[in-house]
Amino acid sequence: MSLGSAATPPETLPAPPCVLSGPSSAYGPSGALIPALVIVGAGPRATGVLERIAANAPELLDGARLDIHLVDPHPPGGGRIWRHDQSRLLWMNSMAEDVTMFTDDSVTHEGPVRPGPSLAEWADLVRTGSLTVVLDPETAAELARLTGQTFASRRLQSAYLRWVYERALAALPPHITVHEHRRRAVRVSGPRDGRQQVWLADRPTPLLADLVVLALGHLDAEPDDEQRALASFAAEHQLTYLPPEFTADSDLTGLRSGEPVIVRGFGLAFIDLMVLLTEGRGGRYTDDGPGGTLTYHPSGREPVLHVGSRRGVPYHSKLGYPLRGEAPPLPRFFGPAQVDAVLARPGPRDFRRDVWPLIEKELGFAHYHRLFTAHPHRTAVDWRDFEEKYAACDPGGPALRALVAASVPDPADRLDLDALDRPLAGLRYDSADALQDGLRGYIEADLARAHDPAHSPDLAVFLALLSVYGQLTRLGDLGPWWHGFFSYVASGPPGPRLRGLLALSRAGVVRFLGADLTVTADPGRGVFRAGGASVPGHAVEARALVEARLPAPSVTRSRDPLLRGLHTDGAAATPAGLLAVSPADARVLDRTGRPHPRRFAIGAPTDARSSGAFARPRTNAPAFRQNDATARALLTFLREASCRAPLSA
Asked: How far apart are alpha carbons 603 and 611 in whole angstroms?
């Protein structure tokens, strides 16, 4: 895809010079060394930092020169995950109106707000001719029909991200130059008090940098012990085993038509796999039933997907209605003061003991605020009376449960987070066919609920989850459960994808295995076997097994040599394997907790990871706050260093 320069009415913004390969260091006209910043990664997080540098540089850099080196083998803007070069069938899981890369006045940061269009607003500007963006014909046709409620393709999002990147370049002061390096960074070296060396693949000399920012995104990982054993078993018995990886990069040719495939994982990676193995192989849907019911027409090239997971159900559908009326005033019971109190407690922190009760009370507050204010006929008391008593209750205690029971007559209107997390817990089905009927009923009910404003307390809980995530970035590594719960409730697939899943189930292309899935290798039969707790005694056999999930972030198992090298050289990792960084400005921490003055890291591999590189507008997105804090720390370092003495070579 070729993207032209962005134009902003009434004139085109000039972009600063960019070259595909820049020098390792440069000197100004006076012979002084020009300060240099290397950003490793060129995806949305790197683009966000670049935009914040452009916004803050007039205040903090005061006209001083700066070379920025952007290092990534993939195109800037989208990077690897959001690159154009992937199937047109793969979608975002957020509506176009809920996707922005720009700050607004909800974002609590020190830097200036620089508003910009959401994905939907950007598409409208392109359609009306207010912006000029060159797109391939398919993507242009998609843009022409995009609405705020559309789930855009990743190709279209890639175009938006490229435009945001170009706009960030155009906003940089003229004394800042960006150099693009379409290579992979493999190592960072250098003293704490001196220039860093960033070594690139197939380049004999390093880039010299006063500062380095890692914006690496999701990374591939070496297999763990179980995955290694399964891969070895597959090789020994001529089977197909696909480990956790980005589905768009998976080689699916070993998944043969008509043959069973065991799929472990029921989140967004499964949805991508499902799409690529059905529509991607020539199948099609027709909408010929009431209420948007779909019928799937196979091409004959599809395998049969037997899918299960710990929960045994897909992620909840994205909500299909907007907020009307009063939003819950957040944060209320889990805000900066509560986080301060958690941080002040002595001894090791336990998520379930110290943090989860506060989150549970915050989510409950949002749920009941919406129920009482938007649906008062389903409550038994006045909201003010309930709110006062709710505030006085201990999180998760018997008094709070008694208050809710007395104030909300219908149990279906009460928030039950345990049932939400494990909907199949304790359920048993007599047969595999009964499980298929039961799961289809569950998905149909989830779809109906997600598109019915009568259940708008669910939207309030979603907003509270976003608020909570924004607070949790200060607490570091909380273990994998929280991120999984958040994704399951708040980051599920578009409704049309679940309607497609129902059609595939009715067509026999997808079969459900239920909850608490177990997978074993059967050396006697030379196959994989899988079964779940939902149908005791039932198991399926297959010659193919797919781990439908991204690799867990891990400094020690990462296939990225730069990240592994940082850890080897003394950078700290959390117990879960995340790179430890300062919550204040994303500086990399060593194993004594000391921040590195010249190395920074943001995004998925770190313990300050946020829910996404882009965000829903007006949600005080933690990624935007982190980007601003990091950009200001970078520029402040450069300003103070230049005041003390010329930056060292």
From this structure: 9
